[in-house]
Write a structure and sequence with these properties.
Strand order of the largest sheet: 2-3-4-5-8-11
CATH class of the largest domain: Alpha Beta
Shape: rod-shaped
Structural class: alpha+beta
Radius of gyration: 44 Å
CATH architecture of the largest domain: 4-Layer Sandwich
Order of helices and strands: EEEHHEEEEHHEEHHHEEHHHEEEHEH
Helix content: 25-40%
Distance between the termini: 108 Å
Bound molecules: magnesium ion
Number of helices: 12
CATH topology of the largest domain: Phosphatase 2c, domain 1
CATH superfamily of the largest domain: PPM-type phosphatase domain
Length: 432
């Protein structure tokens, strides 16, 4: 035998002008709906949804019946919006817990669509049962965001699933073993946006009466900002399975007997595909928009990795090219020689005639031969610089010029080794 005791509270908050939230409390059904949509849409959607839920569950008070009741509520809101253009795009979140009897045993059935939440307070610990159907929460599941990042993410209020915004909706369903002393908290995001788990736990652990606890939570959320409508339902299991030693059993299945967290991304997308007009009016992103947003985020994440890798590769390659270029320039410069004239003396230089880039020619050897010691018709070339392949070749060149000059002055004197003609003729002179 299971008995439940409940209490609830709701408040418009400090920012909104109307309260589009609704709480449901009956003997065996408890729910929170958070309506949305322009004009009166949000209020209409949440009202239609909870009325349809209550009526449908009353006809079939089972776990499957509760899930079916959510689908029926979806149909009612969806068809109402189709017939009333001014309400187009309205929708609502819905989370509910119901006492059901299946196979002769009491059980709690819990359902959720959207980002209102259901928690279980057991043995001093508060655990969120439902999973938010929001873009930020999906990004947490896919590892794109941490929970802390999701809590402040600009997309945390964008729903990926809501009631009444398309002809079908996927419903998450859990079956829970009722344990005496357990406390269930159902709330709209107006509570969880303002209070963290520790603050909520503090109230639930210290205030025995469920109505008082609900009222205190709502007042605390108002005090912390009250930026949205705030609605809380607290449900206590006062008589039930008295199993202090075992952990409570929470069996999660969606309406098609899969946990929402087991759904693939594609399935989630299918479940949340909205007609573009309805999505736009409800402030929801269309499936295309959500996919584009995801693609952008994946690309950005990939881009961050690629940029890092590419930048590193670029720096390494660029560095290698620079080092190679410096080495080549240095080699080219240090393996070049020429003969020039300095203060009327023939001098052998290392480097390029006139210099090359930042390298200037370096004097290697003063030959001792003056401009008077070489034939006059070579002076023009020597003043400009005569390239040679090595220091030795440059020495030979100078020696040959001196020899030629000696021959001119004393034709009877035999020419000396190594040669009788210079290795470079005046016509090969390079002027830079
Ligand atoms: Mg809200």
């Amino acid at each position: 035998m299971t008995l439940l005791r409940s209490g609830s509270a709701t408040d418009t908050g400090l920012v909104r002008s109307v309260n589009q939230d609704l709480a449901v409390e009956s003997a065996n059904l408890f729910a929170v709906a958070d309506g949305m949509g322009g004009h009166a849409g949000g209020e209409v959607a949440s009202r239609l949804a909870v009325d349809a839920l209550s009526a449908s569950f009353g006809r079939q008070p089972t776990g499957a019946g509760l899930s079916e009741a959510v689908s029926e509520a979806n149909t009612v809101v969806w068809e109402h919006s189709l017939g009333n253009p001014e309400l187009r795009g309205m929708g609502t979140t819905l989370t509910a817990v119901a006492l059901v009897n299946e196979d002769g045993r009491d059980a709690l059935a819990l359902v959720n669509v959207g980002d209102s939440r259901s928690y279980r307070y057991h043995d001093g610990e508060l655990t969120q049962i439902t999973t938010d159907h929001s873009l930020a929460e999906e990004m947490v599941r896919t590892g794109e965001l941490t929970s802390a990042e999701a809590a402040v993410h600009p997309h945390r209020h964008i729903l990926t699933r809501a009631l009444g915004v398309s002809s079908d909706v996927a419903v998450d369903l859990w079956r829970i073993q009722p344990v005496r002393g357990d406390r269930f908290l159902l709330c709209s995001d107006g509570l969880t946006n303002e209070l963290d788990t520790a603050q909520i736990t503090e109230v639930l652990s210290s205030v025995t009466d469920p109505g008082e606890a609900a009222g205190l939570l709502v007042r605390a959320a108002r005090t912390h900002g009250g930026s949205d409508n705030i609605t809380v339902v607290v449900v206590d299991v006062v008589v039930g399975e008295d199993d202090e030693t075992s952990e409570p059993t929470v069996a999660a299945v969606s309406s098609d007997f899969r946990s929402s967290t087991d759904q693939t991304e594609a399935e989630v997308d299918d479940a949340t595909s909205l007609p573009p007009a309805a999505a736009a009016e409800a402030g929801l992103p269309s499936r295309r928009e959500r996919r584009k947003a995801k693609r952008r985020q994946r690309r950005a994440a990939r881009g961050r990795r690629l940029i890092t890798f590419r930048t590193l590769l670029f720096v390494i390659l660029f560095g290698a090219i620079l080092v190679g270029a410096f080495a080549a320039i240095r080699w080219y410069d240090t393996n070049s020689y020429f003969v020039g004239v300095s203060k009327n003396e023939l001098v052998i230089y290392q480097g390029r005639i006139g210099g090359f880039l930042w390298y200037h020619p370096v004097e290697v050897q003063r030959t001792g031969a003056t401009t008077a010691d070489v034939p006059g018709n070579y002076l023009g070339a020597l003043n400009a610089g005569v390239e040679e392949s090595s220091v030795g070749a440059a020495r030979n060149y100078v020696a040959n010029l001196v020899n030629i000059r000696q021959q001119q002055l004393n034709p009877q004197v035999p020419a000396t080794s190594p040669a009788t003609t210079p290795t470079s003729s005046p016509t090969t002179t390079k002027v830079t």
